[in-house]
């Protein structure tokens, strides 16, 4: 699936679904110049947006606390986001095949900001990048949806910007969509075309080559339908956002050991307040799971509800006024006790 096809497919889904909703293990230093809360990117209208702690306790329609626009990239669809340890927000712009960084000053208030750093592709190093994650050595990994690669960019490359040849290129991975590290350093990758989740342990992340992932999780009775966002909780359970069937599923840590089609331990598919095309996931400091809806919604599932097969309904859900085509989200400060992100 080429970049333009993927973009238009997501756009069509968002338009069709827009009426379906109701209304590292050490603590990073929190810089007071960066508003605390949840950050994401809106493709329509194109902007970086955030919600503060007070807003995240509310319901109904909500206007972002911070709205930052930029001339540095289109930021239309598939904009992956991740904070580094200093509070710089990194964004993957799939439509431009660019990586952007916005430092503390650029995120301190609403307005127009030029990216602090822009990384450009060289020989396919960035090809519709859709997912981002930092490893324990603070190196940035990028999932290239179009050419089926994972690439690693080291700190010196991130600082320099411009066209950079990745330190590591891992190929042969189909259509990597979102990525997340577990506590052991295994990199997990969703493929929203092949409907799989794959795991590459740290030993498979050393050096450039074509890889056959050590673990491949396939769909069990429709459990994985266009899997997009990934996130690990404090117990090492893996949560997956299914764009195709409007659900979120959870695999136990013990189910991630081997290739197969495990039955998810938890399936979350609300009926009263359906998820607006779930595409991204993020855990907050309290262990609550936030689900990003491509139609412009955010929903929170309380930690207690994730531990049992109880209610499928979110504790909080709101629609973001004037914004849609969301893709992923990240909290600042980074929550303590979660695996690498």
List the helices and strands and how they pair.
Layout: H1 3-17, E1 37-43, E2 46-51, E3 60-62, E4 66-69, E5 80-83, E6 89-93, E7 98-102, H2 104-107, E8 111-112, E9 117-120, E10 129-134, E11 140-144, E12 149-153, H3 155-160, E13 162-163, E14 168-171, E15 176-181, E16 187-191, E17 196-200, E18 209-210, E19 215-217, E20 227-232, E21 238-242, E22 247-251, E23 266-268, E24 278-283, E25 289-293, E26 297-301, H4 303-306, E27 316-320, E28 329-332
Parallel strand pairs: 3-27, 4-8, 9-13, 14-18
Antiparallel strand pairs: 1-2, 1-28, 2-4, 5-6, 6-7, 7-9, 10-11, 11-12, 12-14, 15-16, 16-17, 17-19, 20-21, 21-22, 22-23, 24-25, 25-26, 26-27
What brief labels describe this structure?
single chain; 28 strands; five-stranded mixed beta sheet; disordered N terminus; mainly beta; 4 helices; 341 residues; Neuraminidase
Question: How would you describe this structure to a colleague?
Answer:
The protein is mainly β. The chain has a domain at 3-15 and 50-271: 6 Propeller (Neuraminidase), CATH 2.120.10.30. It is 9% helix and 37% strand. The chain has four helices and 28 strands. It has helices spanning 3-17, 104-107, 155-160, 303-306, and strands at 37-43, 46-51, 60-62, 66-69, 80-83, 89-93, 98-102, 111-112, 117-120, 129-134, 140-144, 149-153, 162-163, 168-171, 176-181, 187-191, 196-200, 209-210, 215-217, 227-232, 238-242, 247-251, 266-268, 278-283, 289-293, 297-301, 316-320, 329-332. The strands form six sheets. It has a five-stranded mixed sheet, with no helix packed on it. The longest helix is centred in the first third of the chain and has 15 residues, at 3-17. It is globular and about 50 Å long. The two termini are 27 Å apart. Residues 1-5 and 14-31 have low confidence and may be disordered.
